[in-house]
């Protein structure tokens, strides 16, 4: 495994000791929340030195469910980048990829769509769950299932080896791994019996990317039932004040009615205890007291959790300060413009190699962006 992550990468015929890459990202359909932090953001921040990181803002995919709300998508695009910087995702070390300004993504989506069976896309369990939780029923756009293919292109265009995501997204990475194997076999002549980690060594263009689930695979929302999710109104946002956090935690349903009643430490309250109280002895003490019905109230524990969450968010508030208001928006747009150039360099390089493998190399093009 280690050999896989740290091996030398052979690029464009020149030997270079390049760091392995990460690609992951968020859809701008709202602001980021604690589920994102434990599920993916925390890993992104931690892996920035070890990996060359590309962080995607999937603003094109936001249109799959919100085509009628371009203003909200734009607002959310800027807010999410503010959230990223607040978390410690560093624009100096990592590249922010604005999906709509990377034409290679849409192009590669088409080529990959030819390699994925229609029924395979429609059977994707993540797609089915999203249709249900977002209440889309049968009334969804053609673009909605297309986004499964689009996500393969988002990832593969940057040839990453690792994709840090929450558990709900793992099923989305599977078609990406499948299509990468198929492309490598069909157009680069890689033997189908090749082990996933050997595809590039055997002449394939795309590494077969692995998902990496965060410390908490699926953080439950403040409704105590569903996954914490931007579209479900059950979130604690990274921008929330202590007062708001306390209020939202206060509303968390635990099912317990009295302090001397033994509580179930598998409930949502204890998911939060384990996710946000880092002192293991304190977690154990709370678990023991609660399961015995040892006169410890839900309200008391909720305040304690809220304090820990507030402590986690405090440095984020500080890093966010220089990006407040309209002047902050302008700074974010400037960063996105700068990074679009960098991202397109990497994307165009892969796209050219993919087209070359498909015998579509009719000449090189240069993208310019102002
Ligand atoms: P939406 O409701 O629009 O789908 P979302 O809140 O599910 O939004 P996404 O943009 O779909 O957020 O997810 C971004 C990343 O964060 C993904 O890797 C996803 O798996 C992860 N993630 C989102 N919510 C959670 C959660 N509650 N627990 C763990 N990981 C999560
Ligand atoms: Mg989601």
| CATH level-4 homologous superfamily of the largest domain | HUPs
**Low-confidence runs of at least 5 consecutive residues:** 1-16
Question: Which small compounds were modeled alongside the protein?
Answer: adenosine-5'-triphosphate, magnesium ion
What's the total helix number? 14
What top-tier CATH class of the largest domain fits best? Alpha Beta
List the helices and strands and how they pair.
Layout: H1 2-6, E1 9-11, E2 14-16, E3 21-26, H2 34-47, E4 52-57, H3 59-66, H4 70-87, E5 95-98, H5 103-113, H6 118-122, H7 125-133, H8 143-156, E6 162-165, H9 170-188, E7 210-213, H10 242-250, H11 268-276, H12 280-292, H13 298-320, H14 325-357
Parallel strand pairs: 3-4, 4-5, 6-7
Antiparallel strand pairs: 1-2
Helix pairs in contact: 3-4, 3-8, 4-13, 4-14, 5-8, 5-14, 8-9, 10-13, 11-13
Notable characteristics:
three-stranded parallel beta sheet; 7 strands; Rossmann fold; 370 residues; 2 domains; 51% helix; binds adenosine-5'-triphosphate; globular; disordered N terminus; mainly alpha; two-stranded antiparallel ribbon; binds magnesium ion; Tyrosyl-Transfer RNA Synthetase
């Amino acid at each position: 495994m280690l050999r896989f992550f740290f091996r030398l990468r052979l690029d464009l015929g020149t030997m270079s000791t390049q760091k392995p890459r990460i690609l992951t990202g968020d859809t701008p359909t709202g602001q980021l929340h604690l589920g994102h932090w434990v599920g993916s953001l925390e890993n992104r921040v931690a892996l920035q030195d070890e990996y060359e990181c590309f962080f995607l803002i999937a603003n094109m995919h936001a249109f799959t469910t919100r085509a009628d709300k371009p203003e909200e998508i734009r607002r959310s695009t800027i807010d999410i980048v503010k959230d990223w910087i607040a978390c410690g995702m560093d624009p100096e070390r990592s590249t922010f990829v604005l999906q709509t300004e990377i034409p290679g993504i849409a192009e590669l989506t088409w080529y990959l769509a030819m390699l994925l069976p229609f029924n395979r896309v429609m059977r994707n369990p993540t797609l089915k769950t999203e249709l249900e939780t977002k209440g889309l029923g049968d009334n969804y756009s053609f673009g909605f299932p297309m986004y499964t293919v689009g996500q393969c292109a988002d990832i593969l265009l940057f040839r990453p080896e690792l994709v840090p995501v929450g558990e709900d997204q793992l099923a989305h990475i599977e078609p990406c791994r499948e299509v990468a194997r198929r492309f490598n076999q069909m157009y680069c002549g890689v033997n189908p019996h090749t082990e996933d980690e050997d595809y590039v060594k055997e002449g394939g263009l795309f590494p077969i990317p692995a998902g990496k689930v965060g410390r908490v695979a699926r953080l439950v929302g403040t409704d105590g039932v569903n996954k914490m999710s931007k579209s479900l109104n059950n979130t604690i946002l990274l921008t929330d004040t202590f007062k708001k956090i306390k209020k939202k935690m206060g509303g968390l349903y635990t099912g317990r009615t009295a302090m001397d009643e033994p509580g179930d430490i598998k409930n949502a309250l204890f998911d939060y205890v384990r996710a946000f109280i880092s002192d293991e002895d304190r977690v154990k003490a709370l678990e023991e007291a609660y399961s015995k019905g040892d006169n410890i109230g839900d309200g008391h524990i909720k305040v304690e959790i809220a304090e820990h969450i507030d402590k986690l968010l405090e440095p984020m508030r500080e890093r966010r300060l220089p990006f407040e208001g309209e002047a902050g928006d302008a700074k974010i747009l400037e960063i996105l413009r700068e990074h679009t150039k960098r991202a397109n360099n990497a994307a165009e390089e892969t796209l050219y190699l993919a087209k070359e493998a498909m015998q579509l190399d009719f000449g090189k093009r240069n993208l310019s962006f102002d």
